[in-house]
Amino acid sequence: IDREKILDIKNLHFSYGPIKALDNLSLHVHKGEIVALLGANGAGKTTLLQTISGLNSADSGEIIFKDESITKLSAEKIVQRHLIHVPEHRQVFSTMSVLDNLHLGAYHHYQKTKKKNVVQEIEKLFEIFPILEERKDQLAGTLSGGQQQMLAIARAIMSKPDLLLLDEPSLGLAPIVVKEVLELVKNLRDQYNTTVLLIEQNVFASLKISDRAYVIQHGEIVKEGSAQELLRDENVKEAFLGHA
Ligand code: ATP
């Protein structure tokens, strides 16, 4: 793995009024890595992704993306730098076809380039997501939950992310589908070298596909390590892996 830091967060603070959600939080992600964020409900994981993508404005600290500070940039400007956030609760355009959803994902990136490239890009994606090809003319709202999540991720890939923030991609999915969606995330990294920062309640399944992970508690990083190390860590096992 290339050791270049694509994302470097330093001493980040963010509060919702009196509620401290991020407390002097620092972390980094190397180019091409999959990094998991672990932590109980309310630990601050979603707030962190929202602050990286400009939906929240940090109270202090710094967010460096591709060697430039994005701390003060608007969400729109951050998207233009190819930092793409796929929020919790899959957001596909349910009254549009699968294919049109994918075309929309390409909109920002390709408006200046050729339509032919978009078609080629979609064909390449269909090799990874064959189910989306089978259903390409179907309205997105008629897909299963797992398929909608795959579409949300595929659409994000159409915008050529240098960093993909995924907030609980397997929320509400059956265990077997969870595994499938996470395997797809790994395939995408392997095929596109996309860097991924991932929130996932399924700690075991997410560590299986991740290179490294951070544990957040009350807005602070309390542990970090390779996925292998964390899978063996007694405290992590006790806190998250239960007796599963
Ligand atoms: P979950 O997995 O439940 O989403 P999380 O780790 O993503 O948890 P956050 O949603 O980031 O945690 O929440 C961090 C803290 O901020 C919690 O104490 C939460 O109650 C609080 N919080 C989150 N969103 C808001 C909001 N819009 N207004 C006020 N407080 C909020």
From TrEMBL:
Which residue intervals define the domain ABC transporter in the entry? 7-243
Against Gene3D superfamilies, the record matches this protein to: P-loop containing nucleotide triphosphate hydrolases (3.40.50.300)
The record's section on CDD domains has: ABC_TM1139_LivF_branched
Q: What is this protein's record name?
A: ABC transporter ATP-binding protein
**Top-rank taxon, per record:** Bacteria
Lineage per the UniProt record:
Bacteria, Bacillati, Bacillota, Bacilli, Bacillales
Record-linked SMART domains: AAA
Keyword entries, A-Z = Amino-acid transport, ATP-binding, Nucleotide-binding, Transport
Molecular function GO labels: ATP binding; ATP hydrolysis activity; branched-chain amino acid transmembrane transporter activity
Q: What family does this chain come from, according to its entry?
A: Belongs to the ABC transporter superfamily.
